[in-house]
Amino acid sequence: MDNFKFHVYTEIFFGKGEIKNLPATLGKYGKNVLFAYGGGSIKKNGIYEQVMELLSETFNVVEFANIEPNPTLDSVKRGVALCRNHSIDVILAVGGGSVIDCTKAVAAARYYEGDPWDLVLDSRKITKALPIVTVLTMAGTGSEMNRGSVITNKEKMLKLGMGAPVTMPQATVIDPTYLFTLPPIQTAAGAADTFSHVLESYFKKGEDAFIQDKMSEAVMLTVIKYAPIAIKEPENYAARANLAWASSLALNGLTGNGKSGAWSIHAIEHELSAYYDLTHGVGLAILIPAWLKHILNEQSVDRIAALGVNVFKISDQQDKFEIAKKTIGAMEQFFASLGIPMRLTDVGIDEEKFELMAEKAVKYGALKHAYVPMTKEDVIQIYQLCK
Amino acid sequence: MDNFKFHVYTEIFFGKGEIKNLPATLGKYGKNVLFAYGGGSIKKNGIYEQVMELLSETFNVVEFANIEPNPTLDSVKRGVALCRNHSIDVILAVGGGSVIDCTKAVAAARYYEGDPWDLVLDSRKITKALPIVTVLTMAGTGSEMNRGSVITNKEKMLKLGMGAPVTMPQATVIDPTYLFTLPPIQTAAGAADTFSHVLESYFKKGEDAFIQDKMSEAVMLTVIKYAPIAIKEPENYAARANLAWASSLALNGLTGNGKSGAWSIHAIEHELSAYYDLTHGVGLAILIPAWLKHILNEQSVDRIAALGVNVFKISDQQDKFEIAKKTIGAMEQFFASLGIPMRLTDVGIDEEKFELMAEKAVKYGALKHAYVPMTKEDVIQIYQLCK
């Protein structure tokens, strides 16, 4: 097991009605609150009203609305201006990963005089950040319990990650009932995102990080059990609760700390959703089986087979390559069963940019340090497998 | 899943050599350090020297030595006096659960004018505590990453738990090489303690806390794999690392939050180690199979069988009572294989105090709220099964 640091200081308020903790939690930091949210679904499902009722008497609430999926540098700049103009003390992010990611960049850029993009390119420049409190309305990214953030620069056509110890949310409200109104494809995409996060950990280097791998399997088993239920019965509390908590635990260091090497699939996906505005989780679900097919060889077969036996309950009484192939098939079938379109052509993506995206994925994703190192040609082949 | 709060703010420095972070970590809180430790094993294995070398130039180090296993109220009072007399800013606990538990009580009692025992009887009286930093030298209790503490009052013959949000360590160094010199029985007792913590969670109420149960299984699988290796090869880094991290994750809320009801086995054990100064983990290992035998019935059988199938890999192709009985047998055999004496008579305990201990266990353990509610008679029967 590699040396690691683990410091997840986010305070979680989990369960129905836990939003009641918001005033006391925000109040620790001051009176001026930047209320960040996305396209307005929170106005339809009542969460916006609930927040305003809780805060409007005691706090000065400044709204930061219309944060887009795959949040852009332009939104970050807009948020920074609001923070400065209104002497914001604390940011309240109500949404999924996009809203929370955007506020992390805003929180850090508030204290940085240069272009916020500098902080995306080099997170070591982040020294201070406004405190962030989040209310989760979509499960999957895990952003509510970690420091990471992904920002899109439309001008440069880049989608890159950033993060520092100070950009982790101070507190997060996870109320599973807030996920009841998610459309099936969002539920499916979120589940695929959660699954992918632990899969990336599972395929990091480090053979003896056993407990981390068992934690990863715990998350995958949870997604496999509850994603189909949440899609069929959107108001099934147990399903929403398990998926939400799985999402937070999938990317807070529990499964990845102690292992080494770069992630593989996310870098390849980020290019897709940077160029095509594809839902991140959908892109991941399409890529995962293709990536596994591409890397299957004498070195990786045991790991893929372990995944199949422990998670997909495939019998270990057969040839390991047979198990591995069945594992990949089971995974593809699982994502398809959630209603995710599983071919790039299904989501309107053709070969045109394969070469360009592959080049960028290798460059920005450090794919030469991945579990199975990747060249541009490897990535093109993976995109080809997804056609 | 029940509502829960999760706030584990302890910063973990995990791995060989990570003690190097001590000066910077302690330095955040001040110059006057109370250096707490136990019977002196850290003077034999070099950790004492290492700590002194790192701290002696920059800090005023006050030693608080000879904290006993099952730390007593008298030790707590001694520590409080040292804190007050030397204007201590931060406590450094170097040891296992006993040393860390003792410092939690000291840290809180430092700011309490009355008898520290008041805080054990009612943790709501804890409002403030000195910051605690720990260096782990024995894995098992999980005290390095939670708020809880168990203190023994010799005069009243009581061993009770306490804890508050402010008594959680701020930071913890877990260097697996510090566990290399642990004698086999301590390794075994620590493994049994870790196992018991997730077992208590596994048998709390809450059928749909699925991810919590899968995390519990992850910890149990880790203990089953690595405890025998660590006993056979005390310097096996992977084994020590996995056991240590399992120990911290077993009792920080990951496996128990979201489920309800009182613990069962710990209350019954605490009476044993209060009256007989038995090693806590040994007492737990003796009691667990007996408790399971006692509670096995139509209501509990599915849960016990799930444990057997998922953790002990017992075939599910048989009658569920058969699976449950094999599970209990496998568990007993596992603990025995670690070299733990498995009968109370083996550790010099006879029937004399069974009735008295049972009465106290029911009273202080809130056993009527356990997964299977217990009366005094139930507890006596469990002790009888352990003879």
Explain the layout of strands and helices.
The structure is a homodimer of 387-residue chains.
Chain A: E1 4-6, E2 11-14, H1 22-27, E3 32-36, H2 41-44, H3 47-55, E4 60-64, H4 73-85, E5 90-95, H5 97-109, H6 117-121, E6 132-136, E7 149-153, E8 158-162, E9 171-174, H7 184-202, H8 210-232, H9 237-250, H10 265-276, H11 280-295, H12 301-310, H13 320-337, H14 354-365, H15 376-385
Parallel strand pairs in A: 2-9, 3-4, 3-5, 5-6, 6-9
Antiparallel strand pairs in A: 7-8
Fold and architecture overview:
- Chain A has 387 residues and is an alpha/beta fold.
- Chain A folds into two domains: 11-178, Rossmann fold; 182-385, Up-down Bundle (Dehydroquinate synthase-like, alpha domain).
- Helices cover 48% and strands 11% of the residues of chain A.
- The first copy, chain A, has 15 helices and nine strands.
- In chain A, a hairpin with a 4-residue loop joins strand 7 (149-153) and strand 8 (158-162).
- The two termini of chain A are 38 Å apart.
- Chain A binds chain B through residues 1-18, 176, 208-211, 214-215, 217-219, 221-222, 225-226, 237-238, 241-242, 245-246, 249, 254, 257-258, and chain B through 1-18, 176, 208-211, 214-215, 217-219, 221-222, 225-226, 237-238, 241-242, 245-246, 249, 254, 257-258.
